[in-house]
Amino acid sequence: MAQMPSPEGMMSRAATLLIVEDEPETANLLETYFRAHGYQVFTASSGEEALSVAQARTIDLIVLDIRLPDMDGFEVFRQLRAHRRTREIPVIFLTEKRERESRLTGLEMGAHDYIPKPFSLQELRARVQNILHRSRAEPAFDGLTGLPGRPLVMEHLRAQLERSDWGALLIGLQGLEVFGERYGFVARDDAIRAVGLLLARINQENGDAFFLGHIGEGWFILIGSRHQLNTVARQAIARLRNALPYFYPLQDVEERPPDLPVLQVAAAQVQGTEGPFPNPETVIRHLLERRKAFPS
User: Fold this and answer.
1) Rounded to two decimals, what is the model's pTM?
2) For the chain, where are the alpha helices, taking DSSP H only?
3) Residues contacting residue 37 through CB under 8 Å, at least 6 positions apart
4) What is the SS3 assignment for 100?
5) Which residues on adjacent β-strands are paired with residue 216?
6) How many whole angstroms separate alpha carbon 133 and alpha carbon 125?
7) Which residue among 64, 148, 195, 278 has the highest number of C-beta atoms inside a 10 angstrom radius?
8) Which domains does the chain have, with CATH numbers?
9) pLDDT at residue 10 tops 70
C-alpha cells in the first residue's frame, strides 16, 4: 500500500519556522527535527535576533521561548505585533510546566498556542501543523494587495468589540465594475493595488497606528484609535480624490468622452462608542450601509 504524503509534503511551498530558544541543545534539536520533516527553519537565541530575523525573512510561524537572555518572550511578542510585517505571524509559546500564569498571559495577548517544557516533539509538530493548516485554509493575506484579507480583518475587529475606544474607516472606489468593463480587469486591479499602496503610505505617515486590511472588491478598512480616525479619514479621502485622474488613460483624461466611467472615492466610519456590536460582521454591514461617495 502506498504511503500517504505527510501534510508538510502537501503544502505548495515548505513552511518556514523561526525557533527562538537560547538553549543551544534544544534549539539544535528542534531545528534538526523540523528540517527532517520538510520545513525551512531559522533560529534565534535572543529577542533582538528574533525580531531582526522576523523582519528580514518571510516567516510562517514562530516557536518562542518565554525565557530569553535580553527580553522575555512576551516583550518579543508585543514588538512583533507592533509592526505591520510581523503582526499576523502565528506564535506558539514554550513555557515551563509550572508557569501557569505565563501560559494564560500568552493566550490573553493573542498567541495561537503554548506548550510546556519538557515537550514531545511529535506533539509540538502536530500543533505547528494544525495552526499552519488553519491559516492556509483561508488565505490570511489578500493576493491582490498583499494586505491582511477578510479573515484577519474579522479577527482584528473581534478583538476590539469589548472596548469602546476604537474606530473603523471603510474606504474604496465606487464605480470599479463599470471602470473594469471599459478598461479591463488589469486596469481595475491596478487601481485597487494603487489605493492599497496609498492607504499604507498614509498609515505609515501616522506611525502605523492603524490596522489596514482589504475585505475584497476594492474596499479597505482601517481600524485603530477613534481619536485619530477623523484625521486619517480626511487625509485618505483628499489624497485618493487627487489620485483619481492617474487611474485613467491620459487620452481619456484630456478628451473626457461622454461615456467616461466615473470613479468616486466612497467612505464610511463607525466608532466603538456606537456599540455594542454583537460580531464583526455587524460592523462591516454598518460600514457598507453608510458609504458616502465624494464628488470627483
Assistant:
1) 0.56
2) 7-10, 24-36, 47-56, 73-81, 100-109, 121-137, 150-160, 176-183, 185-205, 226-243, 250-255, 280-290
3) 6, 8, 125
4) helix
5) 219
6) 12
7) 64
8) 7-137 (3.40.50.2300), 150-294 (3.30.70.270)
9) no
